[in-house]
Amino acid sequence: MTLLYTEVEEELRASVRDLLADRCRPDAVLRRAESASPYDADLWKTLSREIGVAGLLVPEEYGGAGASAREAAVVLEELGRAVAPVPFLTSAVLATEALLQAGVHEGLPAGGRDLLAELAAGETTAALAVSLAASPYRPLPPPVTLNDDGTLGGEIRAVAGADAADVLLVPVGTALYRVRAGDARIDVLPSLDLTRPIAVVTLSGAPGERVGAFDARRVLAFGAGLLTSEQLGVAEWCLATTLAHIRERHQFARPIGSFQAIKHRMADLWLDVARARAAARNAANLLAARPEPGTEAALEAEAATAVAKSWCSEVAVRVAEEGVQLHGGTGMTWEHPLHLYLKRAKASETALGTPGAHRDALSALADLPAPI
Amino acid sequence: MDEEAVRERAVAFLAGHDPGDRTGFLRARFDAGLAWVHFPEGLGGLGAPRELQNVVERELAGTPQPDPGTQAIGLGMAAPTILAFGTREQQERFLRPLWTGEEIWCQLFSEPGAGSDLATLATRAVRDGDEWVVDGQKVWTSGAHHARWAILVARTDPGVPKHRGLTYFVCDMHAPGVEVRPLRQITGEAEFNEVFLTGVRLPDSLRLGAVGDGWRVATTTLMNERVAIGGGPVRRGGGMIGLVADTWRSRPELRTHDLHRRLLALWVESEVTRLAGARLREQLAAGQPGPEGSAMKLSFASLNQALSALDVELRGEEGLEYDDWTFRRSESVDFFGRGPGYRYLRAKGNSIEGGTSEILRNIVAERVLGLPSEPRVDKDVPWKDLPR
Lengths: 372, 388
Known about the structure:
The structure holds two protein chains of two kinds. By secondary structure, chain A is of the alpha+beta class. Chain A has helices at 7-23, 26-33, 41-51, 69-81, 88-102, 110-121, 216-248, 260-288, 296-326, 338-350, 355-365, and strands spanning 126-128, 145-146, 151-160, 167-172, 175-180, 185-188, 198-213, 250-251, 254-255. In chain A, the strands form two sheets. In chain A, strands 1, 2, 3, 4, 5, 6 and 7 form a seven-stranded mixed sheet that branches. In chain A, strand 4 (167-172) and strand 5 (175-180) form a beta hairpin. In chain A, helix 5 packs antiparallel against helix 6 (110-121), helix 7 runs parallel beside helix 9 (296-326) and helix 7 (216-248) packs antiparallel against helix 10 (338-350). The model of chain A has no long low-confidence stretch (mean pLDDT 96). By secondary structure, chain B is of the alpha+beta class. In chain B, the strands form two sheets. In chain B, strands 1-4-5-8 form a four-stranded mixed sheet. In chain B, strand 6 and strand 7 (192-203) form a beta hairpin. Chain B is globular and about 70 Å long. The termini of chain B are far apart. Classes of the chains: A alpha+beta, B alpha+beta. The interface between A and B is large, with 42 and 44 residues. Chain A: Residues 217-361 form the Acyl-CoA dehydrogenase/oxidase C-terminal domain. Chain A: This is Acyl-CoA dehydrogenase. Chain A: Residues 6-105 form the Acyl-CoA dehydrogenase/oxidase N-terminal domain.
């Protein structure tokens, strides 16, 4: 498959971009971030139902689009470019993927199948009740436990998208349970990322229905691989916005973008972003093939994800930080939307495995063993 | 022509020709249009899409191939320029022996006084009837001692601003007045040369492009050069990272935590650079390389330098040795050969040759990002009036 974008992917991009240009302008995102409801439920409804992004990864038999990670990645690029406060990553990617993988071997129970169909239709929004900081390469932090009466108990910190969810998918050991969001306590915390806040999810005797198996490494790696496309979108917006600024901004009677000291930094950033695009595309491409676990293709997809997540995380942060610096005093103001991107970039760097965690994973994946 | 037709053609060609006769085989391959399929028919190609070249390479793997070392300048720079700007006669005269390696090419661009500011070059070409008389000095000329021909940029009109007074020629390296002297490099060997041109007479039929259009022609060459230098390895874990990784895997006693951390970061950077190169090649599949190629060369240079430096450090005691300081002529340009010390020193040239990394950043900033140039004091001044 190609590292470029297909015509269908470009059409999907255009429809998402048009909608966001109309409904998700940076000043509106900033105002919403300061309000009591950081998620834009109306925008999410339009995106998921009219454009159909919620069901992209869901097979056609459940009413989804039967599309692949490649198309989901294109949507993420656009959502990143707009730091759109919608639960696409948390519901349509992470939760949906967890549900799909839960049913891979044993098939989904009726409750799981219904949920997939509701997710695809955009009627229900879900969240995977796992810390956003969880790494695919480490055991999950203290698990939720199954009580004797079949209910669930435990506390999960730093869950993204929980406050936007109707349904929580809760891992209990290697099993995945479905819990009504209304049966959990969800406390949103003041969060570094204003447009994707985190919450503490507390379950005390919450009724849950087992929907299948949970393979943390696979689900989280899939999410990490796709998150790189959102990071790419964040980086692209920061680069374009900074570029426009340094063309316009005059000091010493010249556009500051005519000084080599600044041009060279921009050239390096552009190069970093160009490589981020190739890496994110490659990860989406290999994940789209859905390789069988343990095969050569699966290892290749894991390596591509580790490469992309370590690279794109750092590039998004770097471009956002350089953006703030090159905007000068303006870059430090609350009024300018750059900080929304810096905050998203910095939080995404930690999300689903830090750059260091992904590089460490390459020790095994690229056969570069650590010292003995 | 589609993939299947190209494949059939390559299979039929292989069945009918003896790879044991290297020159004969390569000549016949050129004549069959299987040298570079995207070139026109009659000039070694089939007028087919560029990406179908891979089909030919797969079918003809293991047969004699052009030498990417000694023929680098001919294949990577002279050929695309001759194709874009040469007359049909020039194309028919030069491309076949260029491709088969029967004639080696070198590049007479840089001068002692014109490096990054190439357009300020001072080598003069003065018209004399049907001939041009060339006088000047060129430098950093790889392979000039093997070369039959050179691509040459010379000043034909000193009375106009620097970019406008240049003309592009093919220079006969066997002509009287061409003198090649080796130039020793920090590696100890002489891969480069100085070339002195004294009253060299070139027929007007060796001019490439219009008189005064030399800068535009040279720009085509330079963009192809950067893609040639920065094209990078096609295989995951190949190239310079492959050399270092092999040492790492086979010599566990050399490993430290600090080196491990840096190696993993460089492995990631090598891989994203390789992928960006692959993506760029997909974009270029149909057309000429754009300024994005310059960016690939930037990454390639800094990666090669970081990796070859790590390699020396990794080897500890052994890194203190050097294989051979003997002053000798190089057979070809080689970034990956010999020992780690050689590779470390040779890689220093990667951010200088084919456009310094500083100039390439300007190119990316101005042509890709559309940023304004620094104020230029020499833009509208006739070349002869420039301070020097």
